[in-house]
Specification:
The chain is of the alpha/beta class. It is 32% helix and 25% strand. The strands form three sheets. Strands 6, 7, 8, 9, 12, 13, 14, 15 and 16 form a nine-stranded parallel sheet that branches. The structure holds zinc ion.
Length: 408
Amino acid sequence: MKTLIQGGYVVGFDGKEHEIIKDGVVVFENDRVLFVGKSYVDPVDKKIDARGCLVSPGFIDTHFHSGINASDYLLNDANKLDYFASNYLAHGAPTREGAKHAHLKDVDIGQRFSLIHVLKSGVTTTLEIGGPGAEPERYVAMVDAVGIRCYTGPSYKNVNFFQDREGRLEYDWDDARGSEGLKRAVAFAKNFNGACSGRMGTMLFPGHVDTCTPELLKETRKAAKDIGARVQIHATINLFEFHTVMQRHRCTPIELLQKIGFLDPEVSLSHCIFISGHSWLSYPYGDDLKIIADSGASVAYSPLKYLKLGIVMESFDKYLRSGINMGIGTDTFPKDIISDMRYASLASRVAEKSFTAGHPRDVFNAVTLGGAKLVGRDDLGRLQKGAKADIAIINLKDIAFGAVHDPI
Ligand SMILES: [Zn+2]
């Protein structure tokens, strides 16, 4: 079936960059874009009137965890643990006696709600870290029913961390736990890549630089190459991780990843905040940005998560200038990618102390072209003949927007 969308402002792609086509049209047939331009004369089966709307490529959320953090958010989400935490420790560990596990029914509702919630903000592709958990079939069926495109896989690590009754942190290392986790992740990747009518892609997600042994990380890269999957790891996400790696290996987490041959264009780094030179570290040595840029690895930045903690990336613009491919993820709640574009832009202005930083074009590129590059797809994040018909329509006539001079 051939469908024509009459914009509005259409964000077309000219082969190199996005361009705004005022009063433009997009025509798609099944799941592929057929035409993007000013007018289309051939017959179509269906028309969608999107005059007064922005017709955009669907957004790509490069770091997402479903089913967690859903809370009340009119002004803040004070029920959530990390609202008050400094992120010095990672998220507050459970006690050694174990966390109270939510009932399966609650997990299902939470995950379904999160996926629909992020879809509502215009995200058509999400990278869900650790979504499948213990019940891959249920999870895959849920993603299929929601209709989103999803790159996912169970996450794994060597360490379980606990807090004892005094609140002290304990690392519980187990080599077998890591390799069994990797084995399960590879099995999931093989079984479900291409599921959900091709909307599911699989990736490998080792936990964090400080919770995996270098051996497990090396095995991960080997396994990923064998099955043709990409990899994302949480890296330099808090101060504790930075100093733990420094103490264990006498180098930064990024230098460690480079040393063991982990970094290349098939890898993305979640958050990637505390790199050499960040003002909180007082560590002026080395050049982590250059290492990442030279390796071709991408960064999946989650601005709201860090703003909640009083932390900014230093800075989104600087990473881009260094030549790093940037994606943006929602991670925390609310999972609203449009707000995260605004947060990325504003945080960059604060970090750069310049109102010219955080250009809307750059954050828009990060949630479209940047995300597509991060997952290795040249048919996502753009409206161009032959691209996937993953389209977001935003009603600019809504009272929330007011007058529109330039929609991006
Ligand atoms: Zn995460």
